[in-house]
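dude i think i finally got it to work??
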Amino acid sequence: MSPRRDYLKYALIVNVAALLLAVITAAILAWENVASRNLSLATGTLAAAAINFLIQLPFELQGSKDLDHVSTESTIDRSVPSIRQWNYTGTPSWRIVIETGASNWLAASNAAAFNTDRQVLNSDFVMFSLLCFLTVQEFDWQLRRVTYPSKGFGIATVVHPISKDKECSCFDENDLRTALAKSGNLFAGAPLHLASGKLRLPPKSTIEVDRKSIAIQNPVCRISWHLEDAPALLSYTKPDTGGEVPQLARGEARFETRMTGFNVEITYFGLRSQTGDIGKYRDWLSRVLADVHEWFESASSSA
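look at this
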C-alpha cells in the first residue's frame, strides 16, 4: 500500500524539455533562414509563449501544507485489566464500542500486555482507535449527511456513502488488519468495525499504517497522523476523584492515565492544485480534521 508513482511528474519533465527543444530548434531554423521575416516572427511568438508558460507554471501549480494537533487520553486499570478513555460522554457512539471491545479482546488474549510496556500499550491503543475512526466515521470520502429535525425526537443525522467503486480506492478488513499486524500493533487481532464493509478513499489512494503513524496519500493530497515521540504525560490518580491513588496488592498504582497526541499534517501537491475536483478533496480533509477532533477530544469533563 505504498504511494504509486505519479505520471504527471514525468509529463511535466517531458513537456518542459520538449518546449525548450522546440524553441531552440526553431531559433536555429530561423537563424539559418534569416531572409524569412515570417519565420522569424513565428519563432519570436513561440519563444514568448514558451516563456509565459514557464513563468506561469510555478505560480499556478503551488502546493500547500497545513499543520494541526489532536490530543488523546486513555486510562489503564491494571486490576481489571482494561484500557479505555475514562469518560465517553459527548464522544461519537462508535468510540466506546470500539475501544472497550479492543480492550476486552486484549485482556482475553494477552493479559500480560497490561503488565509490561504500558507506554507501547497506550500508543498501540490510540493508533488502533484512529484507524477505526476512519472505518466507522469517515468510511467514504464523499459522505452525504442528512439532518432530520424533529420536535418530538430531537435532531437525527443519517450518513450515506455515495462513492461508487470507480470513484475511490477500497480497502477491506483483510487489507487493514494485515497492515496493522505488519506494524506490530498489539490490537491487530481485535474486532475491526467497517461501517459499510469497506474503507473508501479518494481514487488512487494508498494507506500506510506504521507503529506510530497513519498516512493516506493520493495524487492530489496527503494527510498523516504521527503520534508524538515525547513520552506521554502520566498520572496515577484515579480520574474524577480529585487526587485518589488506589494501589494494587503489591503496592503499585492501579490506574495509569496517559495524555499524548497526534501531529497532523495535510499537504496538497502542486502538480494537481488546480484539478477540477480540488473542492471535493478540500471538503473531505476539512471534514476528517473536524471529526477526528470530535472523536478524541469531545468527551465531557464531568463524571
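The chain has two domains: 7-60, 64-297.
im so relieved honestly
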